[in-house]
Ca2+-binding protein, RTX toxin-related
Amino acid sequence: MFSEQAYLQAYPDVAKGVNDGVFSSGLQHYTQYGQFEQKRIGFFFGSSGNDTVTGIGEGNKLLAGVAFDALSNGSTVAGVGEVDTLIGTARADLFVLGHPSLASLTSTSQKFYVGGGNTDYAQIQNFKRWEDVILLEGSPQDYNLQVVNGSTNISTASGDLVGIVEGVAPFLPLRLFSSNSLNSISTIANLNIPLDATGSFSVII
């Protein structure tokens, strides 16, 4: 579902507009304006249970199966016990399976879906290679990719399954980028996501 809290936290100007009565909510701004603005994205999160999450609107989107509270509060067990389905949209999507410190959203870093072995993970559908991005916390050495029945399993180095990307084989290995190099990655920069990331993270593109 659309995350009002994340949208207003990421865009203080919109939050001010809501506080001043210009907009009734962040969703109203996103529906009327934000989805059409190049520098805005939509934030779509799940809950503490099993979810199917996709985005609405014309712009780029961030999709996560966990609840935004788990991210913003720095929960160390985000996604444990959950099987979430994340469905990509026609535009560029950022699938979040973990994250470094994101100044706009949270000051902590964490991995998702770690703790339940193969019983908790995110199932990613409609992943568009070279356009969409999968975000993971930590370095590439923390993860393994394995092709299983035509899909790509993403697991921690210890074998804990965190994601399944339907129909995509790992033609290139995971690559690690620091926050200093973030703007040099065109596929991420084009998402216009206010990450302000610090700490190590990995992406699959």
Q: What stands out?
A: Residues 4 and 27 are 6 Å apart (CA to CA). The chain has five helices and 16 strands.
